[in-house]
């Protein structure tokens, strides 16, 4: 029987070191079981609601990063590393409940969202319950872990608020969007890497290096998904989902910043982007133009640059399977977006 697929495998990530793969695979099995155990309530309905998104699957990118960063310390197999991985994933899943309410989303990963299956109140409370479970678990990791988690949570919430409020008058829409991505995505992925190194006993210098790496690669990973929304179905969404829903993405924002209304192509794309893209024909035309437009290449270049910047940060780390695996994540981000 073949081993259970790793979340990394669904991303196209492969391990070059068999021993490392075995350790990470075993760690992810423990994380998955701990996630289910953490999302158990005495009330059956609460259990059903809080596990609704969790059991639908997902990349488990954040727990994977915790385990990879833990390879940089002497105690990569510690129970605290597993607990830290559970904390970041519980936090991530909780944000998905709230995001779906904010976005009025009906589907996630091909299944109905909690707000669609029940209502907004249930979805919000389910997310709150998961945040509470993450807080309870992180408290066992010590006061500094609580401080890191609370600051991360603050950034997550602030990013969501700024996304909801939108661009202020006179503010650059692209700069606003990138700041939201940094807070909503980069912050928790940075904490994932930091927790892994910290609870494996890595030095303070290594912890700071992988935190900065996580911040950079986390943003690159999200921006790569922006490109996938236009280019393919590998993101788990139908191409053009963000366009159809009017969600700003990197290629579109780059295009708008540089669009030349005197150009027939640019003028037509501006017209399409400002129209109702729930119409399949208009959406298909907009996608076709974007796929060959220079703005898409600029977006790909930006993702590649961020991945390269993340890789450069790793040069300060000791060589070994852990560092090599983190370098592979940089390659993964680039190959997913081109």
UniProtKB/TrEMBL annotation:
Its cofactor is Mg(2+). Keywords: Magnesium, Metal-binding, Transferase. It holds the Pfam family polyprenyl_synt. InterPro entries: Isoprenoid_synthase_dom_sf, Polyprenyl_synt, Polyprenyl_synt_CS. Belongs to the FPP/GGPP synthase family. This is Polyprenyl synthetase family protein.
